[in-house]
Amino acid sequence: MEIPNIYFPHLGWSFNLDSQAFSFFGLPVYWYGIILTSGIILGTFIACYIGKKEKLDPNIFLDFVLYDIVFALLGARLYFVIFNWDYYKTNPSQILNIRQGGLAIYGGVIVSIIVAVIYTHRKKVRFTHFADVATYGLVLGQAIGRYGNFFNKEAFGGYTDNLFAMAILKSEAKPPISAEVLSHIKTFDAFGAAEYIQVHPTFFYESCWNFLLLIGLLIYRKHRKAYGEIFCIYLVGYGVGRFWIEALRTDQLLLWNTHIPVSQVVAIISIIMGIIGIVFCRKKCKIKLK
Q: N or C: which end of the chain has fewer CB within 10 A?
């Protein structure tokens, strides 16, 4: 029997995943990139679909993605590199190597918001309306994109023995691996002496949270009171989920010279800005939805 590199002991699910999908003219193509691209495509599709329903030209969203994708990737990578600078300052050749991961979603979101403000201003489109519709694509893309971490065997949490506990073959788990996790090395009778780390599948938690957030925003769409409200609710909802999930992870990006996870700080700021934004949109937005 082939030994799986990922096993869910309480669910009986086993997987043998390779981060590389195939090679193209000798160049490796990774599942991380395929899944990320799929999330962008499907996210763009749902934004175009909802935009059309709200009398917005779908081409606005298609064009935006073409403008934004490079900036978003650079923002996501820059965020990751800045808060991993101790490694990259001695390995500068790896700064642009994103084929196997190393993108921080908050960096991409922050840059995308800046690009969207500039883009909508030039296109003479109301930013708050555009942001509401684009939010659906963003959340869907995030929910799908997290499975890239699954194939990379990365972005997991600390030790757990709960229903969704995920065991990763120790030799294939992407570092860092905490001492607490290493103190609970597992072996399973069916797989002989193979050693596994058993952890929280935080990629799965975040993906599920995002799908639930997407469903909630779709339900709320017809009940919103002002443009911009959907986007602000996303800031609050994603911030709450990310704050909780980040606390479980063992590969947190930390604020310099502290033990404070930077994404938890950004999550708190996101929640505060979202709440302020909801109040502002309801009070100041001139065009209310019928």
A: C
Chain-centroid distance, C-alpha 276: 24
d(CA 125, CA 119): 8
DSSP summary character for residue 2: P
pTM above 0.85, yes or no: yes
132 CB-near residues (< 8 Å, 6+ apart): 224, 227, 228, 229, 230, 231
The tens place of each residue's pLDDT in the chain, 290 residues long, gives 689 999 999 999 999 999 999 998 888 999 998 999 999 999 999 999 999 999 999 999 999 999 999 999 999 999 989 888 887 888 887 787 776 667 888 999 999 999 999 999 999 999 999 999 999 999 999 999 999 999 999 999 999 999 999 999 999 999 889 999 999 999 999 999 999 999 999 999 999 999 999 999 999 998 888 999 999 999 999 999 999 999 999 988 888 888 899 999 999 999 999 999 999 998 876 554 44
